[in-house]
Amino acid sequence: MKISVIGTGYVGLVTGVCLSEVGHEITCLDIDSRKVERLNRSESPIYEPGLEDMMKKNIDAGRLDFTDSYETAMRGRDIVIIAVGTPQADDGSAELVYLNNACRSIAETMTNDMIVVTKSTVPVGTNEHVKNEIEKHHNGSYSVEVISNPEFLREGSAIHDTFNGDRIVVGGESEQAVEKVKSIFEPFGVPIIMTDLRSAEMIKYASNAFLATKISFINQLSNLCERIGANVESVAKGMGMDKRIGDKFLNAGVGYGGSCFPKDTSALSAIAQSVDYDLTIVDSVIATNEGQQRIIVDKIKKVFPDLENKRIAVLGLAFKPNTDDMRDAPSIKVVRELVDAGAEVYAYDPIASENARTYLPGATNYMDSVEEAIDGKDFAVIMTDWKEIKEYSPEDYAKSLTNPVVFDGRNCYGLKEIENTGLEYHSIGRPT
Ligand code: UGA
């Protein structure tokens, strides 16, 4: 099938590349022409394992190309997938300006009847708005059907998730359009659930908010465990063995970050407010996470009340491993607070340092390895559970740091591993 994808951010690019991999003819559009040039050379603007190889293979096979022209992207296409960003507006709701621009351009350039699939995460009711917007700007020659197809992939494992997802959601009012869109995803071999437009839109927010709730729940319990002398890891293990609860997303830490959970929980709360309903559970999840993102600073200040001129190693900056994404990363708050308290920060992240420069104040020094970051520093703080950081030997901290103290915001080490290393180890929800 001939399909266009509008927007080459995380979701759009991965979707376009994976659909070409299963044999569809894909044109991806982005209005940034310099980005398009790079993409046509198989250069990915995002870090995602395996993506560039898959891009190259399908570009070479003539199934995948990139353009900045709507005329080119829309010519003779059966289906167009909208995957533009829906960032958070100042009031917490989703910003729809990019989506509206895409609707107008589609309306002005479509050359036949069209199925428009929205993959961007959008407030409930937006797909009906998409249909109206396109019809408003179109000259009436062709018909438009809209389908909601929210995305559930995770950064850093996006290709794996596309081919091994738990479900694909296809929501729409026209049975024919739903069937046609379902057929393009069938080669992924993932169960497909078909539903109405509004329920499909809601499934996405509900899923992300529920996962965020699991994380905030275990994070609050970790704070309680510390106060009553329990170990949150054992608690999570014991809970997770109950299949009704499940063992995923019960890792306590410094809170969730990234481009999705913070934005989608706020947007869901804003949706509820717009219909005069208080979504108290989600509001409390958001507040809990804001506190949890800086909990490590409280731990640090208990041990080192005066941070003036302290030289601190910060290991990991990205909001999670295997990504260079710094959006809403807990490290931003923590590094800022340490710098504000007069400390000097020496940070190491395997790939996010470049992006971190735009988020963090000038007082941060970027190091090239864990060794370099900790060498001669007063103490270390772990913010991201990169494999490389987890595999770093606990004994080596004691050798390199002036004070052998590590604050671990991701519980990278088992407590047994720390025994006899001479390290004073402060983690999350476990005995010190
Ligand atoms: C999340 C969802 O997992 C995807 O299903 C969804 O498609 C995506 O948002 C989206 O809406 O586009 P992502 O933000 O890439 O994916 O990352 P996750 O792996 O879900 O992690 C989110 C945050 O939660 C990270 O900061 C991670 O460190 C934190 N987390 C995760 C925990 O603190 N504890 C856990 O047990 C799990």
TrEMBL record:
It is an enzyme of class 1 (oxidoreductase). It catalyses: UDP-alpha-D-glucose + 2 NAD(+) + H2O = UDP-alpha-D-glucuronate + 2 NADH + 3 H(+). The keyword NAD applies. Residues 313-415 form the UDP-glucose/GDP-mannose dehydrogenase C-terminal domain. Belongs to the UDP-glucose/GDP-mannose dehydrogenase family. This is UDP-glucose 6-dehydrogenase. InterPro entries: 6-PGluconate_DH-like_C_sf (IPR008927), NAD(P)-bd_dom_sf (IPR036291), UDP-Glc/GDP-Man (IPR017476), UDP-Glc/GDP-Man_DH_C (IPR014027), UDP-Glc/GDP-Man_DH_C_sf (IPR036220), UDP-Glc/GDP-Man_DH_dimer (IPR014026), UDP-Glc/GDP-Man_DH_N (IPR001732), UDPglc_DH_bac (IPR028357). SUPFAM superfamilies: 6-phosphogluconate dehydrogenase C-terminal domain-like, NAD(P)-binding Rossmann-fold domains, UDP-glucose/GDP-mannose dehydrogenase C-terminal domain. Pathway: Nucleotide-sugar biosynthesis; UDP-alpha-D-glucuronate biosynthesis; UDP-alpha-D-glucuronate from UDP-alpha-D-glucose: step 1/1. NCBIfam families: NDP-sugDHase (TIGR03026).
